[in-house]
Amino acid sequence: MNAAELQVAVGSLRGIAEEMGMALIHSALSPNIKERRDCSTALFDADGRLVIQAEHIPVHLGALPASVAAVRERDVGPGEVWVLNHPFLGGSHLPDITLVSPVHVDDELLGWAASRAHHADVGGMVPASMPADSTELHQEGLILPPARLDDALIDLIAANSRAGTERRGDLRAQVAVHRLAERRAGELVARRGAEWWRTACAELWDYAERRTRAAIAEMPDGRYEATETVEAAEGDLEIRAAVEVAGDAVTIDFAGTAPQHRGNLNCPLAVTVSACCFVLRVVADPDAPASGGAYAPLTIAAPEGSLVNARAPAAVVAGNVETSSRIADCLLRAFGQATDTPAQGQGTMNNLTFGSPRFTYYETIGGGQGGSRDGPGPSAVHVAMSNTLNTPVEALEAAYPLRVERYALRAGSGGAGRHRGGDGVIRAITALEPCEASILSDRRRHPPRGAQGGEDGAPGSNRLNRRNLGPKARVALQAGDTITIRTPGGGGYWPNGA
User: Fold this and answer.
1) At what angle do helices 324-335 and 269-283 cross, to 10 degrees?
2) What strand order describes the sheet that includes 472-477?
3) Distance (Å, rounded) from C-alpha 489 to C-alpha 492?
4) What is the average pLDDT score of the chain?
5) Distance, CA of 410 to chain centre
């Protein structure tokens, strides 16, 4: 393909993945998907290589290929849709339910479609399936190894959720986008032919790889090391990473990282891979297509049984959301010794859940992004591994027995500097009936760091009424109790006056 033909191919394939995502958002039942957009969609070639992922959730970047690989090992027939959420068989954490289906055109397998969505409850020990204190995977919800999805299995999943109607609606929305993907692929093949499809998939992969390798080659060769902390309830855990740049390839080694956690801060390997892929894309060529080819130059070594490559049946619910964010910050610090990177952002997703046998609600809360060479950091945004939206106050209050008392910028929480860090937010929510709340957050003891002489951002805080809570907390609420989350500000870049 020449350059013009290649761009047509990139746009055609990306268009299918993006339409899948928008269809899922518009047809889902739960606010978590239709408002927060906590979902991802992607296309793979017939060999299971990631061709293109829609611009959705970074923490899904490296994990979706593992899901497709797990399904491809099974006997999958045309027209079937398979489901899984098992973190050690291609999943990330249990609320993230992944669907995978083959794409056949005229009885020929041309590729695979995948969708992943965060379902607001899949059972387990607490409503919303995001416990702060789980110690094994079985406490976190229903575990689904790869299986054919049919009406009976949808009923089983719904029966194990506190919000069965939502589960049915969201799962059927996911199934619908897989039918859409196969239909759009068929239309494209009808116009251009099956050989064009295969060539386009291969060329897109190669194009993303070429662009990424070219960007890596501009970095100075060397070994760059960094550490970061994860704020466990009992104390800090250390992530240690060494990034080695050699020519047009990168190796990341997590030797020396803390052992597997007895709580739920563990990452399955797929989640660690996602964090590594995200950071490589940020520092190399952010505009390259989100294809597996962009990550081909990357080799990852993660000690088995460590925080970043846990063994089953470790609890992992917070690893996917919080430890992944800390991995990203650690790698950005390391790469910052070889190339320019921004000051640190909030470094947490500020996961907050409310629920009872009657309802379940989950949200993440934005914060400040770090300042950079290009300008101040944005305020009140979901940064790094999240990339979701907030839940609008109107949608939240209409659907749940909750009232938002305050939602405002946390003025002055961004770090000072010539280019200030963005400010965090203050979000206060009152329970209108008895329920339970769970918080999974970080950057409560350690602030986001400034860069190039800029000052640190302010750490966050969690409170129940007037009582301070730790970074990870599970509390019972009575009607009238208020949870207040103050999210971290981003670090500043360059000192004032520079």
Assistant:
1) 40
2) 360-363, 351-355, 435-440, 472-477
3) 9
4) 96
5) 24
Length of the chain: 498
Return the structure tokens found at 1. Answer: 């393909």
Is 391 within 8 Å of 424 (Cβ atoms)?
no
Q: Is the peptide bond before 357 cis (omega within 30 degrees of 0)?
A: no
* Segment 65-87 mean pLDDT: 96
Q: Strand, helix or coil at 65?
A: helix
Domain 3-124+132-209 class in CATH:
alpha beta
Question: H/E element holding 352?
Answer: strand 351-355
Closest by alpha carbon to 119, among 133, 100, 134, 140?
Answer: 140
Q: Give tens-digit pLDDT for 118-166.
A: 999 999 999 999 999 999 999 999 999 999 999 999 999 999 999 999 9
Q: Residue 427 above 70 pLDDT?
A: yes
Q: Tokens 């799962």 correspond to what residue?
A: 171
DSSP per residue over 52-89, as a string?
EE-S--GGGTTHHHHHHHHHHTS-PPTT--EEE--TTT
On whether the CB atoms of residues 407 and 425 are closer than 8 A, the answer is yes
- Rounded Cα gap, residues 52 and 289, in angstroms: 7
> Tokens 């950091």 map to which residue?
377
Angle of helix 164-192 relative to helix 194-217, nearest 10 degrees? 100
Taking the C-alpha atoms of residue 463 and residue 475, their distance in angstroms, rounded to an integer, is 11
- Burial 314-342, CB ≥16 within 10 A → b, else e: bbbbbbbbbbbbbbbbbbbbbbbbbeebb
| Domains of the chain, residue spans | 3-124+132-209, 342-498
C-alpha closest to that of 343 among 498, 489, 490, 496: 490
pLDDT band for position 498 (cuts 50, 70, 90): low
- What single DSSP character describes residue 319? I
Confidence of residue 56 (pLDDT cuts 50, 70, 90): confident
CA dihedral 325, 326, 327, 332 (to 10 degrees): 90
**Per DSSP, what are the bridge partners of residue 46?**
none
Q: Could you tell me the pTM of the whole model?
A: 0.95
State the Rg of the chain over Cα: 22
| pLDDT bucket at 496, cuts 50 / 70 / 90 | confident
60: pLDDT strictly greater than 90 = no
Q: Position 6: which residue type?
A: L
Residue matched to tokens 């998907």:
33
Rounded to 5 degrees, φ, ψ at 296 are -60, -30
Nearest to 137 by CA among 106, 107, 173, 95: 95
